[in-house]
Amino acid sequence: MFKVKWTEYISFFVILVIGIYSLYISRTDLAYFDNVLSVQNGLLEWFTFVGLCLISFGYFYRRRVLAKFRDSKFLLMLVAQGVFYVICALEEVSWGQRIFDWNSPEMFRDINSVLLETNFQNWLIARGVSHESWNLFLRVILFIYLFAIPISYLKVEKAKQFIDKFALPVPKATHIISFMILLVITLFIPSDNKVQFAEFCLTWVLTALTLEPFNRGMFSRRSLVR
Fold this sequence. Notes:
- The structure is a single chain.
- The longest helix has 25 residues, at 131-155.
- The chain has one domain (6-103, 143-221).
- 67% of the residues lie in helices and 0% in strands.
- The protein has ten helices and no strands.
- The two termini are 27 Å apart.
């Protein structure tokens, strides 16, 4: 649960460098943090986008290399998770809206008649779902994934079989501890934009998790009899 592989070090290196830099800037030049680093199209957002793209690439790559060794259900779940992270990456940059400068459809207009950017969260807000409700939902999902899934995997054989069958990477202790430390660090960022920093940290922890999960053998050809 605590062993760290070289591929994880890449993710942790990105977190360390960008994280320390962001924390330092937020404490010494809050205006720069708010208006440059954590703003839309800022450094943190683009590093989050890159991390999500790497995760999706990892799933598609595994789908290709495991095509001859795993059943169709396992392979389908790899594709589904890869597509999910592609969508997450596009959501992060509002599907390229700020790059290509196109207007949101009317379905993204909120109750105050403000036309929001094109992404799923804003669509929910336009439908009357509050930020707080959406964030609570995400926190529950994250808690289940980081804590309930690993415990179930270790303690319940049927849960282990189900998780492996559906190609779900299981977090290691290093991933969980790293994320908890980063959450504590986030508390020391004196900015309302700290959520962007938290998203960046979560993304790169998930990158490390995807590359080297606890059940790594399920995603490696080396563990298979050919």
